[in-house]
Every structure is written in structure tokens, then in C-alpha cells.
Amino acid sequence: MKTKFHLVLLHVIAVVLSFQQFSDGKVMMEYIGATGRPVTFDPVPIDDGVDFHFILSFAIDADASGNPQNGNFSPYWASTLTPDAVSSIKARHPNVKALASLSGWSLGGTVLRWYTPANPNLWISNAFSSLKSIITTYHLDGIDIDYENFPRHNESFGYCIGELITMLKNQSVITVATIAPFYITVLPYIDLFNRYGDVIDYVNHQFYTDKVKTPQGYLKAFQLRVEQFDKEKVLPAYEVNGRGIQGDAFFDALALLQRNGFDVNGVMIYSADASASDNYYYEKRSQAFLLNSTSV
Ligand SMILES: *[C@@H]1O[C@H](CO)[C@@H](O)[C@H](O)[C@H]1NC(C)=O
Ligand SMILES: *[C@@H]1O[C@H](CO)[C@@H](O)[C@H](O)[C@H]1NC(C)=O
Ligand SMILES: *[C@@H]1O[C@H](CO)[C@@H](O)[C@H](O)[C@H]1NC(C)=O
Known about the structure:
By secondary structure, this protein is of the alpha/beta class. The chain is about 40% helix and about 15% strand. It has one domain (about 25-290): TIM Barrel (Alpha-Beta Barrel).
């Protein structure tokens, strides 16, 4: 009995150690569920060697007609991404985490925007409780911030979002927080990051909005964004069938980043909804790239 117990214990320790060694901080970010298509987690290729984050798109502070709800968020991602679906993909792949992305561009025909809450602390408190409920129900691990439209006066954004993330982490509701600026919205995100960068784990900058089509252009954009944020936290990004650099030139860009001394700590892809049509080519190659660069 005793020996068997020890063997089991050793096995557990060995698995934990090898898992830690394998993942080596490489992370894959995959948005999913924004288009309303009946997408599922199951066909997405997940390599054991990376930390794989699914970002459910989106949780929105609005009713179904798009009217703001003073911080009371509701899930609007594809209804196929159920709480059971999340727990089942996490059970099959211990390296999977799931995040709720906040806001996104629009809901139905309504363009969504950050607005200055009448009472910022009430907004934070509503956001905390509604998100805690969604996170618990769906077995989530974190949130991603994807507000895409801002008023001229957006000073409340840094405070409200920064305090929200801080509270969610402090109460152990979440373990991971990411932000997703794009080229027009970078200013409010820099303000947020300058004040609350300690609780932000990754910057999913939407490089495909930087209007660069070549590896050289990508390198320049990357150099700018790591200056604005933190070179350990900024991840290169790719939009499937989308804007910016397209096709294998993206992988040439990743190699160029490495040759210029940047650690490529992960890749963000938008999105699984589009990737089904090419059999997840970019997810497969991105993970192969990340694992290959682990060993050098
Ligand atoms: C946000 O606020 C800053 C500072 O007031 C302002 O310069 C900027 O234009 C505003 N909007 C965006 C989208 O950055
Ligand atoms: C939460 O905040 C309290 C008070 O500032 C602090 O003592 C505690 O260590 C924090 N807990 C976590 C998990 O960050
Ligand atoms: C792996 O790295 C080696 C050495 O840098 C390189 O020659 C090879 O093309 C890489 N393979 C992939 C799949 O990225």
C-alpha cells in the first residue's frame, strides 16, 4: 500500500514537473464565438506544450437591444459554448484556460462604446458581481478587455477597468487578465496599462489593424507596441481571412521578430470561427512555432 502510494505520488510530481517544463510560458490566445456561428471547442487543435487560452466573445454591459446596463454584463457568445462545453474541454486539456472578453465592436446593429459611468464605484461593483456570476457559471479563468470605441473623455476607463481587474484577482475570481487594444484605441489602453500593468498578464494588441502587410512592417509595428506596453507581455496577432499580414508571411514575421531579439512568448488568433474553413492551419503552425522556439 505504502509503496504504491509513493509511486502514485512520484508519478504526480513527475507529471507536474514535466508539464511546467513543457509549457515554458508559451501561450496561445484564441478568440471564439463572436460570429454567432455554432462553433465548438472540440475541433480546435490544442498542443499540450502551450498554455491555451480560449477567449469567449463577448460578455457585454448591455441588454439584448444594446442599451448599457451600468456594469451588469451578460454573455453574448455563441450559445454552443456552454458551461458544460467549457468544463469538458478543460478536463480533456489541463493546459486550457477560458476567458470572457468584455464588449467587442457591436451587438446586433448597435455599436458598443465605453461610456463614463454616473457612479464609477457602482459600475465597478455591478461589473464585479455580474462577471463573478458568469465566470463561476462558465468555469472561466479570466477576462480580456476589448472595448473598441471611446468618447473623447475616457479617463474613467483606466480607473474602472483597472479596479475591476484588481478586485477580481484579489478575490481569486480570476487568475488571468488580458487587454486587446488596436491602433486607434491605444491611448486609453496605455493609460490603463501604466496604472494597472501589474495585474495585466498579456497585451493582445490587434496588429492586423496596424495596416502592415509585410514582415518588415510587422517588426516596426511590434517595436512600437512593446515600447508602449511591455515586451514580455505583447503578443503577435493574426486575423484569419482578415486584415493586415496574411498567409505564411505571418510566420516569416514571427521569425523576423526572433532574429531581432524579441522573445515570441505567444500568439493571438482572431478567430476560431473563421479557422474551421482552413482546418485550423494558423493555430497548428503557430503552436509548432512556439514549441520549436522553446527548444532553442
Ligand atoms: C481618450 O482620452 C485621451 C486623453 O483625454 C484623448 O487624447 C483621446 O483622444 C481619447 N480617445 C481615444 C480613443 O483615445
Ligand atoms: C487582497 O487585498 C488585501 C488588502 O489589500 C491583501 O492583503 C491581500 O494580500 C490581497 N490578496 C490577493 C490574493 O491579492
Ligand atoms: C525550427 O527551428 C529551426 C531552427 O531555428 C528552423 O530551422 C525550423 O525551420 C523551425 N521549424 C519550424 C516548424 O518553425
